[in-house]
Amino acid sequence: MLLNKIYNEDCLVGLKKIPDNFVDLVLIDPPYDICTIGGKKGTSKLAKGILKLERELVNNDLVSSFDTKVLDELVRVMKGINIYIWCNVRQIPMYIKYFNLQLKCKLEIVIWNKTNPMPLYGNTYMNDKEYCLYFRNGGYCKPASYEDAKTVYVSKSNIEDKRLYEHPTIKPLELIRKMIRNSSKENDVVLDCFLGSGTTVVACILEHRNYIGFEINKKYYDMSNKRINEAKKNLGGR
Ligand SMILES: C[S@@+](CC[C@H](N)C(=O)[O-])C[C@H]1O[C@@H](n2cnc3c(N)ncnc32)[C@H](O)[C@@H]1O
Questions:
Q1: Minimum CA distance residue for ligand 1 atom 27
Q2: Does the model's pTM come out above 0.85?
Q3: CATH no. for residue 9?
Q4: CB under 8 Å to 206, separation ≥6 — which residues?
Q5: Does residue 132 form part of some domain?
Q6: Which of 146, 149, 157, 210 gives 20 to 30 Å between its CA and that of 37?
Q7: pLDDT (tens digit, 9 = 90+) per residue, 128-174?
Q8: Half-sphere exposure of 100 toward its Cβ, with a 13 Å CA cutoff?
Q9: What is the extent of the structural domain holding 175?
Q10: Using the 8-state DSSP alphabet, how is residue 24 labeled?
């Protein structure tokens, strides 16, 4: 298993090639457990927009949950438990049970607060935030500034990035950079086994961390490589 390389592979297969106690930080954004409204038709611009997004998620296999054996592999490869996991509200109990109750980790929740959510609040609250759970037991965490120590990141949803990097669930690069700065040191090894468009790896390059990444979908893997090459070129090679 080479460092500073990404693999077009199912992570459950790829992770088995990483030695025990090898990784300093894991930062993952696995597929969300989403209950689609699929099939319901709407004629308004908003309803059409939601159906289009749902179709994109379903067609690219981004709504089925993942094999939780991955978590056992991640725990095996980490030096101490030091892991950020993006998730939706339905997945929180599963992660709390696994990391807090079984592995006695500390929990912090980082929130991405979107300032321009879809205006849907008929019989519920608006979908204006995303959760990233941070579990730690022996892992490093040392924010270097007041700004970096904040747990709520406020921005509009990153429509430009989605368009540019052709991934529907891309996360904000600045927030991922901050998590990496806070929870690892220069030249540490950071692992993301659900790469998507490669945001974590680009953040690693900019923050001078080593990385390993996996992405199962060839289209997204190719996009990650393109972004990585651009980031390296902008830094003058690394
Ligand atoms: C939510 S997206 C990640 C988006 C990413 N954070 C970004 O900023 O672009 C999850 C990704 O995991 C990939 N994936 C799903 N199951 C996988 C598996 N078993 N192994 C590797 N990648 C997988 C999907 O193809 C998808 O691109």
A1: 196
A2: yes
A3: 3.40.50.150
A4: 177, 231, 235
A5: yes
A6: 157
A7: 999 999 999 999 999 999 999 999 999 998 888 888 888 888 999 99
A8: 12
A9: 5-30+66-235
A10: S
